[in-house]
């Protein structure tokens, strides 16, 4: 009886050890799978942002001017047909108004796809534009070379900084703020202010539900495979830091262009 129990115990131990070994063997595979899924997610997001940039360019620089030119042509036709204003003038004026409205809607659509300031000014100048009047003083600086940035990372960085500065404008308008950007294999950004800091309910890992914008900053960073942290610092003030990887977004970009300096004269 004792021998049977001993054999059963040995078998049970062997089974447990085998199960543990099998589970341990699957961990590297699961990690590789998780990494592959994350890279795939980043490539999809980067491709989407590149497509949005191309779509904005087509709408804003192609279809928009075409419709505007058509509106001007209709104005000329309206003047030409002035001999019969009762029949032509009201109709053409209405068409002209609707075309003007369509042009405005197209521009609004383009703005929603990608902030136009990024293409018009570049990331640093666009941030400087957002920072104007935010508080008593804002210092914006990019440490390092102003090299190309993938569209997805550029948009995420702009939106995170914009949201952080909006919070400064709303909750610490009498403070000073600092915006720092630097890049290596990632784009690093920091927005710090000298205001009162986070509410007590959000300190020490509290959930940012009372302020939706704080959760959005974390989501924008996560979409490109990065992370974002918001915390109060000793002595007062709030610090927003984000680290946005460049590799996956760069591989998905179909072309490159200067992104940090001014684009247009």
TrEMBL record:
One of its GO terms (molecular function) is protein dimerization activity. One of its GO terms (cellular component) is membrane. Pfam families: HATPase_c (PF02518), HisKA_3 (PF07730). Keywords: ATP-binding, Kinase, Nucleotide-binding, Phosphoprotein, Signal, Transferase, Two-component regulatory system. Residues 154-247 form the Histidine kinase/HSP90-like ATPase domain. Residues 1-21 form the signal peptide. Its EC number is 2.7.13.3. SUPFAM superfamilies: ATPase domain of HSP90 chaperone/DNA topoisomerase II/histidine kinase. Residues 51-118 form the Signal transduction histidine kinase subgroup 3 dimerisation and phosphoacceptor domain. Transmembrane segments: none annotated. It catalyses: ATP + protein L-histidine = ADP + protein N-phospho-L-histidine. It is an enzyme of class 2 (transferase). This is histidine kinase. The lineage of its organism: Bacteria, Bacillati, Actinomycetota, Actinomycetes, Streptosporangiales.
